[in-house]
Amino acid sequence: MTTVGILGGGQLARMMALSAAPLGLRFLVMDTVADACAGQFAPLIVGDWRDEAALSEFASKVDVVTFDFENVPAESAQWLAERVPVFPSPRALAVAQDRLAEKTLFCELGIPVPPFAAVDSREGLEQAVATIGTPCILKTRRLGYDGKGQFRLRSDADIGAAWDALGAQAPKVGLILEGFVAFERELSVVAVRGRDGEFRPWSLTENWHVDGVLSASLAPARVEPELQAAAFRHARQLAKALDYVGVFALELFCRNGELLANELAPRVHNSGHWSIEGAETSQFQNHLRAVLGLPLGDTRNLGHACMLNWIGEMPDAGAVLGEAGGHWHDYGKSPRAGRKVGHATLRSDSQAELADALVRVGAALGREAQVAPVVERLRGR
Ligand code: ATP
Ligand code: MG
Ligand code: MG
Fold first, then answer.
1. DSSP at 9
2. CA-CA to 113 of 20 to 30 Å: which in 38, 88, 322, 333?
3. CA–centroid distance for 232 within its chain
4. Briefly, what is this protein's role (predicted)?
5. Ligand 1 mean position to 242 CA, how many Å?
6. Which sign does the torsion angle of CA 217, 74, 25, 201 carry?
7. Region 9-21: what's the mean pLDDT?
8. Which ligand is in closest contact with the Cα of 210?
9. For residue 297, what is the DSSP state?
10. Is residue 51 predicted with pLDDT exceeding 90?
11. Ligand 1: residues within 6 Å at CB?
């Protein structure tokens, strides 16, 4: 029996284990904390990412390694790769861990990006703001997630506050300044690439964020076919350049009908959770098929799906479970402000039915504001 090792034991590892259990796989998860939620379904090794004894035990017990957490030190991934197959490769991981390396690669491939500049000092920040202009966003190059490690500058007057907020982190994680994009939409391509180079995207997804955290996703996104084709071209090119194996997400802004790449997530992605019920094969199962060199499943969508993230605490499940296409995912985490604790997916055969279901669920849960932009998009206003 094949054992898949997963570095990081959060909800992504948990959903991977749940989705691929029917394939007869076993899982072993490594995390730095003992209450990692994937540990409810798979044995867990607790250890620091640089703890060689823990890594060694992990490597000796698994046939292949993958990630639920993109910030595992690239050196630890490399150490493992010398002992056991690791997918995606430590190189792909290293590029995606650094916003500067990632944006530089996008540029090399001709994928449009917002203006950006590396920042190493307060003077460097002043120069970068002068070049890029305001509004702009200062971000840590490494270790940011869910909008953490970011500071938005509305004008030059915010330079001091931005440096006070993030300057101390510059030596350790590096900083990058990006032009602020007044986008009409945020989109993502979630796609899988097999060991043999076969590439399959799920339908383009539209995403809504609140305070930098994903709130809702709609698939298929309501966009012109040409825009979806361009997004798929960028994703395919990127995956090929990195010789990527597994599922990844390319986050995109759409402004004036043009795409600008934001970032690459080298793993299954929150904006692909809808694929569990909304596609022929989910991102989780296809990720494991890719990592194991198995044939990839069809990524075609089954009607229209909307995923709603539950942040902080779980609402009552009844309203979602009462819908014909309602699906509930409780990650088994304790409630905490800002924490992703679960999600729901509503699936319907038509956009009109999906909009109606979202209105009912939004009203029942007091989440009208969360569903409103999705309903508006579905109703085409
Ligand atoms: P994730 O959880 O997706 O990994 P992250 O912490 O890596 O998040 P980003 O994806 O860079 O952060 O930013 C989070 C959100 O903030 C984006 O989805 C977008 O809504 C907004 N944002 C980030 N960069 C820009 C930008 N340059 N212009 C406009 N909005 C932006
Ligand atoms: Mg990110
Ligand atoms: Mg992001």
1. -
2. 88
3. 16
4. Catalyzes the ATP-dependent conversion of 5-aminoimidazole ribonucleotide (AIR) and HCO(3)- to N5-carboxyaminoimidazole ribonucleotide (N5-CAIR).
5. 22
6. positive
7. 96
8. 1
9. P
10. yes
11. 114, 137, 144-148, 178, 180-181, 186, 209, 212, 251, 262-263, 265
* Closest CA relative to residue 273, chosen from 247, 246, 242: 247
Tell which atom from ligand 1 comes closest to the C-alpha of 207.
18
- Are 9 and 32 within 8 A, CB to CB? no
Mean pLDDT over 332-339 rounds to 96
381 CA to centre of ligand 3 in angstroms = 26
Q: What pLDDT score does 381 carry?
A: 61
CATH value at residue 244: 3.30.470.20
In-domain check, residue 107: no
> What pLDDT does 145 receive?
85
At 146, the pLDDT band (50, 70, 90 cuts) reads confident
160/290 same-domain check: no
Q: Do 350 and 250 lie in a common domain?
A: yes
Residues 59, 124 within the same domain: no
* DSSP three-state, residue 325: coil
Q: Residue 206 sits in which domain range? A: 185-378
| Alpha carbon of 144 to ligand 2 centroid (Å) | 6
Residue 69's CATH number:
3.40.50.20
Mean of pLDDT values over 155-172: 96
Q: Say if 331 falls within a structural domain.
A: yes
Number of neighbours of residue 177 by Cβ within 10 angstroms: 23
Nearest to residue 272, comparing CAs of 191, 333, 370?
Answer: 191
ipTM exceeding the 0.90 mark: yes
The answer on 158 and 140 residing in a single domain is yes
Q: Show binding-site residues for ATP.
A: 99, 139, 144-150, 178-181, 186, 209, 262-263
Q: Are residues 318 and 242 in the same domain?
A: yes
Q: How many domains does the chain have?
A: 3
Best of 148, 248, 262, 340 for a ligand 1 pocket test (most atoms within 8 Å of beta carbon): 262
CATH number at residue 171: 3.30.1490.20
Looking from the CA of residue 146, the nearest atom of ligand 1 is 2
